[in-house]
Structures are given as C-alpha cells and as structure tokens.
Amino acid sequence: MSIDAASLRASSAAARPRGRGRRSTWASIGLHGALVLASLIAVFPVFWVVVVSFKPDAKAVEATPTLFADSSLDNYADVLSGAKGSFLAWFGNSVLIAALTTVLGVLLAASTAYALSRFRFPGRHWMLLSFLVVQMFPFAVLIVPLYNVLLTLGLQGSALGLVLVYCSTAIPFCTFMLKGYFDGIPADIDEAGRVDGLSPWGVFWRLVLPLARPGLAVTGFYSFIVAWSEVAFASAFLSAADESKTLAVGLQVFVQQNRAEWGHLAAASVLVAIPAVIVFYAVQRFLVSGLAAGSVKG
Predict the structure, then answer these.
(1) Cα gap 131→47, rounded to integer Å
(2) For FRET with 81, which of 118, 137, 145, 228 sits at 20 to 30 Å CA-CA?
(3) Transmembrane stretches, by residue range (predicted)?
(4) What is the pLDDT of residues 148-171, one digit of tens each?
C-alpha cells in the first residue's frame, strides 16, 4: 500500500502547531544582522587591545591609527624579560593565589553546601541568610574590617592572608550555587552508599561530588576569576614591594601620573587574559548545565 507524498506533506502541515509561523526572510536577515553587529561590538575592544599590543607606545594613541604598520613583538619581549616591571613574579604570585583560592573555596563551599542540602539543624536558615547578606556589601566597605582582622592574625601583606580574603568573598556565592545543585541529586544515593558501608565523608567524596562536577566547575571558575582579576583587595592587603604584587595590581605600573605606556600595558593585558581563557575552555562544557542547575533548583 503506497502513500501519496502530497498527502504526507498535507498531514505533516496539519500536525504542525499553528501558533508558530515561519519567520519571514527579512525578519531572519534582520535578526542575524543584529546578532552579527552585537558580536562585532563585543569583540572589537578585545581585537583592538591585541592590535595595540604590537605597536610602540607613541603609536598606540595616534589620532589616525593604522592596523599593521609599525607592528612588532618588542612590547611582549620587554614585558616578559622584566625590562618593564616584574611580570613573571606577578604571574607566579597570581597563579599561586588563584590556585589556593580555587581549591580552598571549592572544598569549603562544597562541604558547606552539602551540609545545608542534606541536614536539618538549628540555625540553618539563618546561615543561608547570612551568606546572602554578605553578598550585598560592596568590596570597598569590607577593606577596613578585613585589614584589621589580617593585622590581628599577622597575615597582613602575605599571600595567605589575601587567599583567605578571597575565600571569604567567593564561598557565599559558591555555597548557594552548589546547594542548588546538591538539592537536585537524589538523597537515595546517600542512603545506598551508607548501606554499602560508606561513612558520611565517603558518601560525600566518592558518590556525591563526582555527580556534581558541573556545579564544581562553575564554582571553581568563579573562584579562579575572583582571585585572578581582583584589584582592590590585592592593592590593600599585599606588600608594596614590586615582587609581591599580583598581575592585576602590577599592570598599574604602566600607567602613572606623568606617563602611560599603552603598548606595554596592552601586551601585558593580553598575557594576563590567556590563562583565564584556558581555564574557561577547560570547564566550558560544564558551565551551562552547572549554572542552570544552580539557578533553578533549591
């Protein structure tokens, strides 16, 4: 028994929802044109920073700049060789601080979020509220009290003190994010692990955390970016010595009151952005699912 192709098209057209009309050609052109324009506007500043990074300082701010004229790798050579600032020392400090902040922040936030998701204890709701309230304060308000705390502990001017400061600002957001993700993991998995003889820590470490990898990726990336690009706390809590600065603070040496080395600043900015881009691409497959789960659950 053969079926007419025309009847198949007619039946499929009848089954198609009437509320969804096909977008017209001009509407599609307008939509794609707007998306292309928005993409160009977003990408152009980054592209121009890359272009300026290859130009001498005097040519970087010309009224009629050229795209490829006078381009060279001299700015990158000066920055990496130490002729312009202690870039490699700043880079090492930033890597150390960002790595410690990411590891400590994710571990503390994950354990706290798991406890808030699975257990009911007195003060649980007040604890969640306190995390929310902490996020409402701008960083500038926290500098003085945190400075006094670090001074009392003897950690003022040290990398460890700055790591603790970054953890105190990153953990509340990370805890909220991970709690929403843990709420979406069935509690039956915990019970099955305890039946198999796992301790509460074993259930958390061996069963729950592997299932929460998207949420951990989001919180890890957030903690890394907080420590990698933050300026105010790093300027206030680290030693004034040039070798003790982080990258975000060290870049200020290229723009002083009486001079501005825009070419070297652009080159250093490109080098600073590379590790953040690498980390982003390493966790990008987890970001969408982790953000969606943490935002709609719990």
Answers:
(1) 38
(2) 228
(3) 26-51, 95-116, 128-147, 159-178, 261-283
(4) 999 998 888 888 999 999 998 888
- Reply yes or no on whether the pLDDT at 11 is more than 60: no
- Count CB neighbours of 292 within 10 A: 14
CA angle, 112 then 118 then 124, to 5°: 60
Task: Give the whole-angstrom CA distance, residue 20 versus residue 239.
Answer: 62
Q: How far apart are alpha carbons 31 and 24 in whole angstroms?
A: 11
CA geometry: angle 94, 96, 101, nearest 5 deg = 95
Higher pLDDT, 187 or 14: 187
Tokens linked to 119: 């257990």
> 3-class DSSP state for residue 144?
helix
Contact between residue 135 and residue 260 where contact means Cβ atoms under 8 Å apart: no
CA–CA separation, 244 and 158 (whole Å): 8
The 10s digit of each residue's pLDDT in 31-85 is: 889 999 999 999 998 888 888 888 887 777 765 667 767 778 888 998 888 777 7
Burial of 258 (0-12, 13-18, 19+ CB in 10 A): exposed
Query: Is residue 244 a contact partner of residue 238, using CB atoms and an 8 Å limit?
Result: yes
State how far the Cα of 7 lies from the Cα of 9, in Å rounded to an integer.
Answer: 5
